[in-house]
């Protein structure tokens, strides 16, 4: 049952999207459990709070009369600003980077992969019914934020990134 009391199948794309976002939030929590870097932890904490909003956004269909918090352009812009700041710190990416390095970076890469799955399910859902367009922009930019954050975690841990041959 959705937050607007509408019953839907547990096999629906909407329930899959909500589940993927919840799984992503859990992975971010796992990342935070090993994070010793205050800046990265702050970034991940902000992401967790926004993922809660995203989950609510998905649980209350856009056409529902029920009020809920929604992902807005402000959330998307915050993520984009953070990406730009971290990208300046870690420098230009010269090739494909294999996931791994420090434990924190490896965990963030797992979260990034879950984020990409959530995005694919949300896109499929959006092909079937109307969802908040800002939520799609947010989840897309979030995977990029997680990628540069993993790079930053490796750099700050003194771990060299492994480039794909």
Describe this structure in words.
- The longest helix is centred in the C-terminal third of the chain and has 26 residues, at 103-128.
- The N and C termini lie far apart (48 Å).
- By secondary structure, this protein is mostly helical.
- It has five helices and no strands.
- It has one domain (13-155): Cobalamin adenosyltransferase-like (Hypothetical Protein Ta1238, Chain: A).
- The chain is elongated, with a radius of gyration of 16 Å.
- α1 packs antiparallel against α2, α2 (38-59) runs antiparallel to α5 (133-157) and α3 (73-90) runs parallel beside α5 (133-157).
- The chain is 68% helix and 0% strand.
What is the element layout, followed by pairings?
Blueprint: H1 13-34, H2 38-59, H3 73-90, H4 103-128, H5 133-157
CATH topology: Hypothetical Protein Ta1238, Chain: A
> Low-confidence spans: pLDDT under 50, at least 5 residues?
none
Strands, total number: 0
The helix content, as a percent range, equals: 55-70%
CATH superfamily descriptor: Cobalamin adenosyltransferase-like
SSE pattern: HHHHH
Largest sheet: none
Q: Over all CA atoms, what is the radius of gyration?
A: 16 Å
Q: Tags for this entry?
A:
mainly alpha; Hypothetical Protein Ta1238, Chain: A; 165 residues; 5 helices; single chain
In short:
By secondary structure, this protein is an all-alpha fold.
């Amino acid at each position: 049952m959705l937050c607007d009391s509408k019953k839907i199948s547990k096999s629906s794309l909407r329930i899959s999207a909500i589940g993927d976002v919840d799984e992503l939030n859990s992975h971010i929590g796992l990342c935070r459990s090993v994070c010793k870097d205050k800046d990265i932890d702050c970034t991940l904490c902000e992401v967790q709070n926004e993922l809660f909003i995203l989950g609510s956004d998905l649980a209350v269909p856009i056409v529902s009369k029920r009020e809920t918090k929604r992902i807005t352009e402000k959330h998307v812009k915050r993520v984009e600003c953070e990406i730009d700041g971290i990208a300046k710190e870690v420098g230009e990416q010269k090739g494909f980077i294999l996931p791994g390095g420090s434990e924190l970076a490896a965990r963030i890469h797992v979260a990034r992969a879950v984020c990409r799955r959530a995005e694919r399910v949300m896109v499929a859902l959006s092909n079937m019914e109307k969802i908040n367009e800002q939520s799609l922009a947010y989840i897309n930019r979030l995977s990029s934020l997680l990628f540069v954050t993993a790079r930053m975690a490796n750099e700050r841990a003194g771990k060299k990134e492994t480039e794909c041959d």
